[in-house]
Specification:
The chain is an alpha+beta fold. It contains 26 helices and 28 strands. It has a 7-stranded mixed sheet with strand order 16-28-27-26-17-24-25, with helices on both faces. A hairpin with a 2-residue loop joins β22 and β23. α10 packs across α11.
């Protein structure tokens, strides 16, 4: 038996080398691009890149970008992208979706060594943003972008790059970090200065007593920024909640109220103990509590801060487009397009504005906008809507509407896009905060009244003690730490949620609505093509492949790819009827590919699922049918979810897959040929029942429905790009885990409830003690942080344990 020869792998990217002539120092390369990258690294003594990870590079089959980045030579467009511009210094920040490992970081942070003129490079791995400083007299932005693309890190540059970034979230995040830093500093020092109180040191002389008094007063000074700066948001939140109760005559009290009361009681009681009695107080308890609260808030906010959950059409549109200027084309910012401009669109480019076809053959794929997977053939002077994607040769269009007035932007003119979407607090949080607040206030005032009658001197200490120890640490600490842990676990499984409320809301969902194309099925690039008809000889397969290669129509490309292994032949004569088919002659033999009418298919050979028919001479050989490829695990996900939820399908496609889908979903829950506004209206109708709705979609056609729904999950092949506004982003490869994510959300809420129970035990013990009027400051100082820390540790440990049992952690 002959020995099987091992495949030769590319030294750069690890793909199989089909051309073994590309060899440098016994290292093989699969293409010129990979060889070029290695040479760049070798010339600059950077081959340690490969020591960090074998085959660390990205496959590069070509470094000819065919003018793809020529628009960056336009000074106005370049200026719109740059962060800073001067005569000899430019700064720019580029988003690189392909960054994936430590090797990428190493290479990109040494980018200034690879290209002369680049002065400094810095990569934010979390956000996948590369900050570059370069000398424009030595290197241009276009050259930098082309080199990055050659290296395998093509930047994602869209119209959104020219919009001034909202700094509000950044400012809030920076303020929170400052609050944590100040509070943490004060907390550490307060605890250090409280050691004499902890150990009840017997002070033998006046000097020691004076030092102790000095430490107590120093604690007062350190506690001021903790209360007035660190706890400011909670105090403000409590005040706002009380005003809302007064104005709207509602009974719902914010959980900020008992927090603010507890912190305030600690502050006032500690002032009294320190300044009046000269005794130890609760300064460390107050500072430690505020620090933990702020830390929990930071964990919640920062878990997936690098992901963009809010997107509009600018995130998807190209930055620039070619516009006709007399007898030539120049690049122009898409935002500057005006009615009457003639633009040129290349193969697979997105059309940024409503326009009419002026020249060329247009086959427009509207799947990203309408959900319809079949490309549409457009004739001259017919309207092409923004958001469509050209499939085939270059075409010229006359703009009929500006970008801001196009059909696509109407999605963002809906009322539900004009305000920031907030996921409402869950029933669990609302109920706990309302009842806990009322019960705490009732116990504290009843305690004060009782002791005012029995022993007036004990009334004030007992009243403040109840408020201090009854702080709702279960909700304010266990909730964010538990949910932050769950967010991290979900993130490791490529499911990214916007905030902790999303996890809680998942447990209350009653209806789930799915898009079809790109959601339940893979996108159009993964459609199955099957042949039905007479058996074809190798010669016949070659005829159909060769004829199909002479057409730019998407269907012809599918035919050619189906017979990919066949020999390519040259036809003597070819003619194409737009939107119908293509005809050719070879050695006096007639060959046709097209629709039933064009080929004259007899009635008995018609197939409603046929995409294209094949004919040689007068004989119809058969047809090719396409069907979507459903995502792996699709049947299992639907089977699990249908037991607990009402499932619906909204698709922009025609109902060709209705029979297949009716095996899994109720037939009256399947809705096809749905426009974006139809989907949005359907979600609103479901919400009229006052039951929460979850929408799962992937394209701009789902944007309105995702925004309107109580929760929206955007499915994406690339979680860093091309996802509509949503509350969560799910990697398409993890679709089969959707039911597990929802189930684990329920488990996490149960863990929070267990944390509540543990906290209630602590509160029952401490409140009973505080009501008796015998709770000393030192004991409270030990008990309060102990209870808070133990509740947090309990929640986090149980969450990890539960995740392992659910196979979400290995």
């Amino acid at each position: 038996m002959p020995e099987v020869q091992e495949a030769v792998l590319c030294h750069h990217c690890g793909e199989e080398c089909k051309n073994e002539d590309l060899i440098i120092e016994d290292k093989h390369f699969c293409c010129v691009g990979c060889k070029t990258v290695f040479e760049l690294l070798q010339e600059n003594d950077l081959c340690g890149y490969y020591d960090l990870e074998q085959h660390a590079g990205v496959s590069l089959k070509s470094k000819n970008h065919e003018g793809k980045f020529d628009y960056l030579q336009n000074p106005d467009i370049e200026a719109a992208i740059l962060d800073f511009k001067s005569e000899k210094l430019h700064k720019v920040t580029l988003f690189l979706p392909a960054v994936h490992c430590s090797s990428c970081v190493w290479l990109l942070e040494n980018f200034h060594k690879i290209r002369a003129g680049v002065l400094h490079s810095r990569l934010n791995f979390i956000k996948k943003e590369l900050s570059l400083t370069y000398d424009p007299t030595n290197v241009s932005l276009k050259e930098i972008v082309e080199l990055l693309a050659t290296l395998g890190y093509e930047p994602l540059i869209s119209l959104e790059n020219t919009v001034a970034k909202d700094q509000t979230r950044t400012k809030k995040s920076n303020r929170l970090l400052r609050q944590i830093a100040v509070t943490g500093f004060c907390t550490g020092n307060i605890m250090l200065l409280s050691f004499p109180e902890y150990f009840k040191l017997d002070l033998q002389n006046d000097v020691d007593a004076q030092y102790q008094k000095f430490f107590l007063y120093l604690n007062v000074i350190l506690a001021l920024p903790v209360y007035f700066y660190g706890a400011a948001d909670y105090i403000k939140g409590a005040w706002v909640s009380l005003k809302e109760v007064w104005k709207r005559n509602t009974t719902t009290l914010s959980v900020d109220i008992p927090i603010a009361l507890g912190v305030t009681a600690l502050f006032i009681r500690s002032l009294y103990e320190t300044l009046i009695n000269g005794a130890g107080a609760y300064w460390d308890s107050m500072a430690g509590l505020v620090f933990l609260l702020l830390l929990g808030k930071w964990v919640q906010k920062k878990t997936f801060d690098y992901l963009s959950f809010e997107r509009n059409y600018k995130s998807y549109f190209p930055l620039a487009v070619e516009v006709k200027n007399k007898d030539h084309f120049d690049y122009k910012n898409v935002d500057d397009l005006r009615k009457g401009d003639i633009i040129r669109i290349h193969n697979n480019e997105l059309i940024p504005a409503d326009a009419q076809l002026a020249d060329g053959k247009a086959f427009i794929d509207y799947s990203f906008v309408t959900g319809e997977s079949e490309p549409v053939s457009i004739r001259n002077n017919e309207v092409i809507y923004a958001g469509g994607r050209q499939k085939g040769q270059n075409i010229e269009l006359v703009v009929t509407k500006e970008v801001s007035k196009s059909y696509l932007t109407q999605l963002w003119n809906q009322a539900n896009f004009k305000e920031e979407k907030e996921v409402a607090n869950t029933k669990l949080a609302d109920d706990f905060s309302k009842y806990f607040t009322y019960i705490t206030l009732a116990i504290s005032f009843l305690t004060a009244i009782y002791w005012a009658v029995v022993n007036p001197e004990t009334a004030w200490p007992a009243f403040t003690a109840v408020l201090m120890v009854a702080c709702p640490c279960a909700l304010t600490l266990s909730m964010p730490f538990t949910m932050g842990t769950v967010m991290g676990i979900f993130g490791k499984n490529k499911f990214y949620v916007k905030n902790q409320n999303v996890i809680q809301k998942l447990t209350e969902i009653k209806h789930i609505v799915f898009d079809k194309t790109g959601t339940l099925t893979k996108n159009n690039d993964y459609r199955e093509l099957t042949y039905k008809g007479e058996s074809l000889s190798e010669k016949e397969q070659s005829l159909f492949k060769s004829l199909a290669l002479n057409s730019t129509h998407p269907v012809s490309k599918l035919v050619a790819s189906h017979f990919d292994k066949s020999e390519e032949l040259i036809f003597d004569e070819i003619s194409e009827m737009e939107g119908a088919g293509i005809l050719g002659y070879i050695d006096s033999q007639k060959v046709q590919i097209g629709n039933a009418h064009f080929l004259g298919v007899p009635q008995h050979q018609l197939d409603k699922e046929a995409r294209v028919y094949l004919k040689i001479g007068d004989t119809v050989k058969g047809c090719l049918k396409t069907r979507p490829v459903f995502r792996e695990g699709f049947e299992g996900v639907i089977a699990k979810l249908k037991n607990s939820f009402n499932l619906y399908l909204l698709s922009g496609d025609k109902s060709t897959d209705k029979a297949q889908l009716s095996e899994y979903l109720a037939e009256d829950h399947l809705h096809f040929e749905q426009k974006p506004e139809d989907k949005l209206h359907f979600i609103k109708t479901l919400q009229d029942s006052k039951e929460p709705v979850l929408m799962v979609g992937d394209g701009l056609n789902d944007a309105g429905a995702l925004r309107q729904s109580d929760l929206g999950i955007a499915l994406s092949e690339n979680t860093q790009a091309f996802t509509p506004a949503s509350d969560a982003i799910l990697d398409a490869n993890k679709f089969s885990e959707l039911s597990n994510f929802i189930e684990f959300s329920r488990k996490s809420v149960n863990i929070v409830k267990l944390s509540f129970l543990l906290s209630l035990v602590y509160n029952f013990i401490c409140i009973s003690w505080a009501v008796s009027g015998t709770l000393s400051p030192v004991v409270a100082a030990i008990f309060m942080p102990l209870s808070s820390i133990s509740v947090v540790l309990f929640a986090v440990i149980i969450t990890y344990f539960s995740a392992r049992k659910s196979n979400l952690l290995t």
